[in-house]
Amino acid sequence: LGFSLSVIAVLQVSISLNKVELSVGESKFFTCTVIGEPVSINWFSPQGERIISNQRVIVHTEGVRSRLTIYNAIIEDAGIYRCQAVDTKGQSQEATVVLEIYQKLTFREVKTPQEFRQGEDAEVICDVISSPVPAVSWFYKNKEITSEPNSRFQVLPTNNLQILRVSKADEGVYRCEARVEARGEIDFRDIVVLVNGKSCSSHTVCTSSLSSEQKGHVIERSEQYVLSTLDGGKSTLTIKNIRQGDGGPYTCHASNKAGSSESQLFLKVFGEETFGSFIHLLIFYKANSTHISSVIVYSCVYTCECFHFAHSVCLLLDAPKFQTNQTIFYSWEGNPVNISCDVKSNPAATMLWRRDRFTISSQGTSNIRIHTTEDQSLLEVTPVSDRDFGRYNCTARNNIGARYQEFILAQADVPSHPYSVRLSAVSQRLATVTFMKPDSHGGVPISYYIINYKDTSSQDWRTVRSHGVQTTVVLANLEPNTTYEVRVAAINGKGQGDFSHTETFQTLPIREPSPPTVHGQRGVGKAYRLGLIKQDDGGMPIVEYIVKYKTDKEEQWMTKLVPGMNDFALLQPLQWNTRYNVEITARNVKGLSEPTFFQFLMPQKPDITADSLFSGLGLGTVVGLGVAGLLLLLVLVDVSCFFLRQCGLLMCITRKLCSKKTTTSGKSKELEEGKAAYLVDGSKEPIVEMRTEEERITNQEDGSPVQEPNETTPLTEPEKLPLKEENGKEVLKPDLIEIKVHKDNSIHTKQDDSKA
């Protein structure tokens, strides 16, 4: 049997946009694209009718594309539009687009000024429309008018302002401000309220005539000067293509039955290169019968306002502009958050905060505080329940304009889980974990990550904390040859998020260490230092390094064992100008690593010079050695003077010590009486000692008799005392001659024969 099989692809239909918001009067087109071979492509309206082109709605189809264009959209155009494609079998596929039409804020026939009779109930009309319905607020003298019981000012359901028993004191400029919170749209109109006194009855029409003059000449209508008279006694002067010569004083003169008044201002032109292409307006309007204010508008953005003072100065003014880009803030219950509304304007703007169409008092509430400076209003919110989360609105206004910005206080959540957890650089004791940060931080910045890991056979997780928000963490102190599970979670101010998917990895078994890495460094003298950089220890500590080395000419290796905790090996003594081969092996309890080979060359034998001796010494050491050498030289000189010339410091010290040992004994007295004498004249005559017979035969110490020497008795060499000349030089010791004095006064002399 034979079968014929044909396959027809199903059509795929898509529209360029899924949902579109369009304001009334705007235009938009949508493109429908079909993948496949469609027979027809048609568009259907929200009412289910096939759209046929007309002047405002056009359908254009070409090939596999069809375009729907809607010009000048109206409210009735809102709804779901369908693009339908049909294939050759009559099967259809379609795609849809949602079109939402909204009405922009529009003020309809808001008149100014609005006049009322004194004492009547005035209703100031402000007709504004939008979709959704706008929120309208009224302001007077930069303060919001609130509808309080028993107040003369009430905001009516029609958004008009009612003033009960209006009086002259109620005259002024009232601002009608409308907002659409969903789009952050805001606009306003200033309305002048006039109150007529009894001088103008209800049947009397108060009119006025206004004229303008510059430099004493009445301004006539021309291509450059455009004069316009409006209702309510209002006149405008428009100056086109302003030039330097247009500067100067301008006077507006107004008069009616009650009298006349005028106001003068000075127009300063800053240069044609700045304002030459703009249209500038001088606007004069009569607020009442006695006062005129004047305004100069330079452009849509900048306004110069001059009031009726004797010396008024025009300044460039600016409507409020928000300087804050952040409009979404996150917090959680009990955690305070500051929402900052930063505004730049001239003059300074007043800022108000609203929540759900209610103005937040500047005094705040139990959990809300407002801190305001000239250009900033800070809303401090401490959420206590879900009701405190939502939209907060900041409105800034000055005399030039108003701006509105919406802020969202969202409830923070914990982060989502990290993903793509990977393990790298797994060894016996270490493993590196990398991961991708969560898709959502929960509105609050992530503080850090926690990494849980455990042995698969255990129930207890161990935790490691990342450094800040780094997405790489190293796990240490692992067991070799063990299977682990690891997971990661993110932490923010709200709390901990979910854990990632659990990953499994296994550490390596214990093995021999990897070869060490070696780097050489010349040592001191005949030594060489080898730096040892530990690599993978194989899961067990390095016990020792085995270092073998020899010269190129030697066959025998010399071996040096270095403890495993050392980071260097010192080889010595080595030979000068010789190349060495080195083989280094690391050992743990499992065994030896592969060897690492290294070569180095010892330098030439250095010359011993002064430079080489002191080259390795610091400046302080060299100075110390110099001082020590100088002191040693002084000591040697002093010792030489002591022995050769009996002078110097050592001689002075010796004399002082000897003088202290001298006593006033009887022997000393006898020496002083002349029984012993020294030669002091430098002659070579012998020293003569004279003793009596009693002295000769009696011991001086104990009085015992002493044997008299004779010819056969050896004589002891008497003590020789050094003699000095007057100039301090040592002289030769003379021979000693003993003179004996007997009782018969006979004298016998005997020369010392020790010299014989």
Automatic annotation (TrEMBL):
Residues 717-729 have a biased composition (Basic and acidic residues). Residues 692-729 are annotated as: Disordered. The keyword Repeat applies. It is found in: Cell membrane. InterPro entries: FN3_dom (IPR003961), FN3_sf (IPR036116), Ig-like_dom (IPR007110), Ig-like_dom_sf (IPR036179), Ig-like_fold (IPR013783), Ig_I-set (IPR013098), Ig_sub (IPR003599), Ig_sub2 (IPR003598). Coiled coil: none annotated. GO terms for biological process: cell adhesion. Keywords: Cell adhesion, Cell membrane, Disulfide bond, Glycoprotein, Immunoglobulin domain, Membrane, Repeat, Signal, Transmembrane, Transmembrane helix. It comes from the Eukaryota. PROSITE patterns: FN3 (PS50853), IG_LIKE (PS50835). The chain crosses the membrane at residues 613-636. It comes from Cyprinus carpio. It is a single-pass membrane protein. GO terms for cellular component: plasma membrane. Residues 11-98, 103-268, 320-410 form the Ig-like domain. This is Neural cell adhesion molecule 2. Residues 417-510, 512-607 form the Fibronectin type-III domain. Its main location: membrane. Gene3D superfamilies: Immunoglobulins. It holds the Pfam family I-set.
